[in-house]
Structure formats: C-alpha cells, structure tokens
Amino acid sequence: MTSKNVLVAGAGIAGLTTAYWLKKHGFTPTVVERATEIRDGGYKVDIRGAAVDVIRRMGLLDEVRRRATEVREATFVDRTGRKVAEMDADLFGGRSGADVEILRGDLARLLFDQLDGVEFGFGDSIVDIQPDGTVRFEHTPARKFDLVVGADGLRSATRRMVFGEGDVRELGYYVSIFTVPNHLGLDRAERTYVEPGRTALMYSTRGAADAKAMFLFAAPPMDYDRRDTEQQRAILAEAYAGAGWEVPRLIEAAKSADGFYFDSLSLVELDRWSRGRVVLTGDAAYCASPASGQGTSLALVGAYVLAGELASSDDPATAFARYEQEMRGFVTANQKLGPANVRGMVIAKRWQIRAQLAVLRMLPHLPGKERMAGRIAARIHRAATAITLKDY
Shortest CA distance to 250 belongs to which of 216, 217, 215? Predict the structure, then answer.
C-alpha cells in the first residue's frame, strides 16, 4: 500500500496500539492527543482472551504481568462496613486462564515506551478533515495525511466530524472514578457497597499508596457540560445523598481528587467504521461501556486487526472492509456484555440486593463451587475469544 502517512487521533490504548502496529508494518504514524501528556495511573482494566494474544505478539506479556494489579479479594459490606460476603477477585471480575488485570495508565505508559521515533502532538486536537486528507489542528499548522485513524474514545471528535451525531446509545447509568487516600488500609483488596439504584466501591492495587473510588448509579440521560468537573462532582454528590458506608467521605474526597472521571455508560453503534480516508477503532468505533469489562481488549484487538489489514491490502478501502469483516462478530459479542453486566452491578430493588448477597455468601461453601464459578466466567470468556487472530 502506498498510503503510508497515517494520523492517529488519540493516545489512549487504542491509539497507542494502532501506532505500534502501524510502525511495525512500515507505516509512518503521527499521534495527536488533546491531553498534554500520557495519562498515568487511572482505573483497573482487564486484558482477556484474544487481547492477551495481541500483547503476547507485541512481546509485552511478561511486562504486563509484572504490572498486574494483584487484587486478591472482593468483599461486600453493609452500610456500617460489616462484611456480608467475600469472594476471589478473579472470580468476581470474570477472569480465567491467562487473563490479567492492570491499571489503564500503566498499560498506556508501557505502550508509549515502545514508540520511540513516533511523532506525538500533545496538547492539540483535530478541528477539520478534508476529503483530500488535509487536516486542520487547533494549535498547529494544517498537514496532509494519507489516512486518519480516529481512536479518540467514546466522545470521539473524529467520529462526529465524519459521521455526525446520534451514534451513542446511553444505557441509563453513570460512572465516576477517581483517586482517594487509602484510609481503609486496603491491601490489594476491593470493598463494594450496594444500595437500590447505586453502587460504590473502593479498591487498592499492588504497590499503590492511595486507592481508587468508583461509583455506578442509575439515572435518566442528563444534560451537563462534559468539561465542567465541578458540575459533575455536584451531580455525583446529589446522586449519593444519604448513602451509607464510606460514601460521604469518598464524595467529600471527590472535591479535590486527582484524575476525576465522570460519564454515562454508553454503547457506540455504527453500521460502518470508515468513510473515505478516515477509519475508527476502539471506543470511537464500538465502545462497549466499562460495564462490559472488555473496552481495553476491544481496543487492543481492533488496533492489531486494523493495522494488519492495512499492511496486507492493496488499498485502504479494501483494508477497511476486511477490518470490519474480521471485527464485527467480536464487537457484537462483547457489546452484549455491558447491558447484561450492569444489571448485576447496579440493582434496582432492596430484596434483589439481599438475594444476590445471599448467593455470594453461600457460593464459597457450596459443593461444585468451581464448576459454578466457571459458568460465571464462561460468558465473558466466550466473548473475549470470539475472534481468531490472523497472522499479518
């Protein structure tokens, strides 16, 4: 293929992995990122199934395992903090076999470190893409590229420019994640508290002095400024007013927390992922929502397949069509996980919470618990392995 000069929008997992494989196949990627640097830290993410194979093909599996969170236990507590159920963290997270959990920022930093020689434009963003490949930026002069890869996440500006609005389906839930002091003294452990319509949890990972707080709650679609974190903090505080356990302390910590994140749980659903010189990957193309547990795996696999098809095709249109053909079934299987999973994470009725906790409390003591545990993870495993990776 003669179209070798490629602009990648977004330096998240999808963008960095795309740049890695493009460079590996002889392309010249340039990455533009709105943030001023690679975002370290962040929440914990899973690498499962086919995505583990992608990491292995990058020669990074040992490095990823050295950075694993090593969270060992997941405990459910009541409003006073009393333990009401406990289970193995891998079982709770649906992990099996070679699956691994890592902080998102640790994975991003590891990927970034493999990209020596790749040009990065931090603190900048795309404002216009012309049919001939000319791209105008917010802060730097316009440049011409053969191809543009939109890997800029759920709220992708690239997708909006090329495909317009209306491709994001909100699931009726919101999520917030941020860093907090580890005042509970957690050691590679997770604590979860559930009330009707809202869930709060706090966890610590290997070697971290602080902890992460995560909130999931049901709510109708809200109109708010996505760049106004003060407004988002206020929405979160209102949603958890009167909640028990450590929630008031965590909400207070949110006022000055590092890395505050707030967004809806949503799916991106598109009939096609490319138009002209522009192609989408990762959350920009097929966000499955954090509730799926598969966003990172979709990003890793999608980037591998996209770059591989570009490398093995004579023209971009053929490559884009093959990329969609390879990925569509995998995406569909993984997007189904989010709506199903979130109903077990945010529970509407108090009696349903009691029933779920009773099952979790009994599970470690039941005969055949390993078989039952395997069934819990099997649905996620089937989706995570619902693609056979080609050798490009």
Answer: 215
